[in-house]
Design goal:
Strand content: 25-35%
Helix content: 10-25%
Shape: globular
Number of strands: 19
Strand order of the largest sheet: 1-14-13-17-16-15-19
InterPro entries: MoCF_Sase_C, MOCOS_middle, Pyrv_Knase-like_insert_dom_sf
Pfam families: MOSC, MOSC_N
Order of helices and strands: HHEEEEEEEEEEEHEEHEEEHHEEE
Radius of gyration: 21 Å
Distance between the termini: 43 Å
Number of helices: 6
Protein name: MOSC domain-containing protein
């Protein structure tokens, strides 16, 4: 291999840690048996993390991967007086709650101190500061979708803040990773876990898919309507439907199933006002009737691909993904009808 080709492969991360068979796959992808560098199919344009379920997300330049998704993602949730989780589906006002974390919280190996806080703001409300060290209080009887268990209670001040904002009794709780686990649906992916994400650790949408949708809308919608973790760019519209195995940088991800959308995309994330779009248009162009006409019809609409990370995330140094990382498609299906959904 010539020096110039070796430099090209090193710049794409194709030498060093990749296994021999993975190098072979990439040489096949590039259509060459001479070892030329694989060409990325897309790149990571943005990374989003949502520390409090259904509250506003944070755009970050890089983030560590964990067993349950990005670190800090959906680690907290607001619950009602019965311990049942509250989302934007029931309380659209949560869209107005802004969450900020220390910038260093997304760095490799960082651990919180007693002076580390998550800051929460909303219109007409005082600043709420939540210590990032685990709270001592345990709340039993917390339920989220089909899961129930205990969680860590963030105390009376946080409870009063959310009670005053939403106008009903509620508390802020944190997933108790020391004693609880929450499995993803084993029909689609076995041995993977989440905290307070709806279904899977990661969700990816491409900018091209959003652009294609917006061409059908009278008023374009921003990406925050869909709350992905990864915004990809540089691929064909809706190509992520087909991705069953990808690499982001050197890390392997499995495309688990198409992301079925609930009512949240109809909520304006700047005003919390609910309207018919974009779901009405998605029903015309992205329903199971359109994408999967020969499959069982459930009246669902789809945008985005749910992912799990296939790497060992419990050993060694933190595995970091950053904006600008290349995406390599290793395996894919031919049509959305062939994809799991």
């Amino acid at each position: 291999m010539g020096q110039e080709k070796m430099k090209q492969q090193q710049s794409l991360g194709l030498l060093g840690n990749w296994k021999e068979e993975e190098e072979e796959e990439d040489m096949e992808k590039s259509g060459s048996s001479t070892g030329t560098a694989a060409v990325a199919d897309a790149k990571i344009a943005s990374i989003f993390i949502y520390p409090v379920k259904s509250c506003r997300g944070i755009s970050v330049p890089h983030a560590p991967l964990t067993l349950t998704g990005f670190r800090w993602d959906r680690q907290w949730v607001v619950v009602n007086e019965k311990g049942r989780a509250i989302s934007q589906r029931a309380e659209a006002k949560l869209a107005l709650v802004e969450v900020n974390m220390p910038k260093e919280a997304f760095s490799e190996g960082w651990e919180p101190t007693k002076n580390s806080y998550m800051e929460i703001k909303a219109p007409g409300m005082d600043l709420l500061k939540i210590p990032l060290c685990n709270p001592p209080l345990v709340a039993d009887g917390v339920s989220f979708m089909r899961w129930s268990g205990s969680a860590l209670d963030e105390g009376d001040q946080a409870s009063k803040w959310f009670t005053d904002f939403l106008g009903k009794p509620c508390r802020l709780v944190r997933f108790n990773a020391a004693s609880e686990t929450r499995d993803v649906d084993p029909v689609y992916a076995q041995g993977y876990f989440v905290m307070f994400s709806d279904q899977y650790p990661f969700m990816l949408i491409s900018q091209e898919s959003l652009d294609a949708l917006n061409k059908h809308l009278n008023e374009p919608v921003p990406i925050n309507r869909f709350r992905p973790n990864f915004l990809a760019a540089g691929c064909e519209p809706f190509s992520e439907d087909l991705w069953t195995e990808i690499k982001i940088s050197q890390f392997s991800f499995q495309g688990v199933k198409l992301c079925a959308r609930c009512k949240v995309p109809t909520i304006d994330q700047d005003t919390a006002i609910v309207g018919p779009e974009p779901n009405a248009t998605l029903m015309k162009i992205r329903s199971d009737k359109v994408l999967r006409p020969d499959k069982k019809q459930q009246g669902k609409i789809y945008l985005g691909q749910s992912l799990v990370c296939k790497e060992n995330l419990t050993e060694g140094k933190a595995k970091m993904v950053k904006v600008g990382d290349p995406i390599y498609v290793i395996n894919k299906v031919s049509t959305a009808a062939e994809a799991a959904a």
